[in-house]
Specification:
It is a single chain. By secondary structure, this protein is mainly alpha-helical. The protein has one domain. Helices cover 64% and strands 0% of the residues. The radius of gyration is 15 Å and the shape is elongated. This is Isocitrate dehydrogenase [NADP], mitochondrial-like.
Length: 90
């Protein structure tokens, strides 16, 4: 590993966790956990709909990864997670 920024699939990881947390919230009768999970998923979708996405999604949108350019069509994983953190606080 060379410490380069990545553009992995953070939404898949986030949704795996939020679905598990939402189920845990239902089992425990914890509406705050359910609300947090649903809010986090909604924020992820809103961010992508606003045009901020990682390379995997940009490739789907442009129909070819070869056409994707960092910071023009997609952001790296850290920047995507920063956008989620910023928008989750709203």
């Amino acid at each position: 590993m060379q410490g380069r920024p990545t553009s992995t699939k953070p939404i898949a990881s986030i949704f795996a966790w939020t679905r598990g947390l939402e189920h845990r919230g239902k089992l425990d009768g914890n509406p705050d956990l359910i609300k947090f999970s649903q809010t986090l998923e909604r924020v992820c979708v809103e961010i992508v709909e606003s045009g901020v996405m990682t390379k995997d999604l940009a490739g789907c949108r442009l129909h070819a990864l070869a056409n994707c350019k960092l910071n023009e069509h997609y952001v790296n994983t850290s920047d995507f997670l920063d956008a989620i953190r910023t928008n989750l606080g709203k």
